[in-house]
Amino acid sequence: MTTQDEQQEQREPEQGERARAPRGRRRAAWVAGTAALLGGVASLGAFGVQRAAEESDLVLLAGLDGGVVGHLLWAFACLCGAVLGVAGFWFFVVGYEWLTATLAAIVLGAAVLAACGGVLLNGLFALISSSTDYFVLDELDRPGGEQILVEEATGFGDVYWHVYQGGPVRYAEITDSFDLGPDCERLTGSPGTTPFADGDYTLTSDTQGRDVLSFTVDRSYCDNGGTYELVLP
User: Fold this and answer.
1) CA 27 to chain centre
2) 15-39 pLDDT per residue, tens
3) How far apart, in whole angstroms, are the C-alpha atoms of residue 161 and residue 153?
4) Rounded to the nearest 5°, which phi and psi values hold at 161?
C-alpha cells in the first residue's frame, strides 16, 4: 500500500508538469508573436525614417534628427528580437527531449546575444548623434514649408550653426545662401557659445521688410565683430 502511495505521489508532480508545459508554450508563443509584430513595425519605421533622411537635408521628428530616430527604432527592433529569442527558448526547450532542447538553446542563445549587441550598437550611435540641438524660430509665425530652423551643435573644439527652411518634418539647408561677410566661410564660434539654447538672439526686419536673424558669438573667425546678421528668405 505504501508503495502504491509513493508511486501516486511521484506521478502527480509529473502530471502537473505536463499540464503546465502546454500553458507555458502558449504563453511563450503569444510573447513571441507580439515581439515579432512590434519588431517588424519598428524595423519598417526605421527603414522609412532613414530613407526619408537620405532624401532630405534634415528630417526632424519630436525634436530628434531622423538618423537618431532611425537608430532608436533599430535598437527597439533588436530588443524585440532578444525577447523573441527568449520566448523561443522557452517554447522549444521546456518539455522537449534533451537533444532538441540543447540545439534550440545554442541557436536561440546566439540569436539573443546578437540582438543584444544590436541594441547596444544602435543605442551608442543614437547617443553619439544626439548632441545636436534644433530650434524652430516660431517667432516668425511662418506656415509649414517656410519655417526657419537653426541647428546648434558642438564639433571638434567649436560650436557651429546651420540654418534650414521647410517643416514641419523635412527641411532644406540654406546656410550657403547667406552672405557671411569677408573671410567668413561658415557659422562658427568658441565652445560654450550657445545663443539659441540661451535664447540670446534677435529677429528684426530690414528696410525691405525681410526678416533678419542676428546673434553674437565669441571667436567667430570672421571679420564681423562677432555678430552674425542673416537675411532670411
Assistant:
1) 30
2) 444 555 577 778 888 888 898 899 9
3) 7
4) -130, 145
Other Cβ atoms closer than 10 A to 104: 18
d(CA 166, CA 137): 12
CA-nearest of 159, 147, 134 to 64 is 134
Cα–Cα distance measured from residue 120 to residue 52, given in angstroms and rounded to the nearest whole number: 24
- Cell 526547450 belongs to 93
For 75-126, write each residue's pLDDT tens digit. 898 888 888 888 877 777 766 667 767 777 777 778 888 888 888 887 787 7
Residue 120 CA to residue 162 CA, distance in Å, equals 30
What residues are paired with 149 via a beta bridge? Answer: 136, 164
In the block, residue with C-alpha cell 539654447? 197
Nearest to 31 by CA among 69, 79, 84: 84
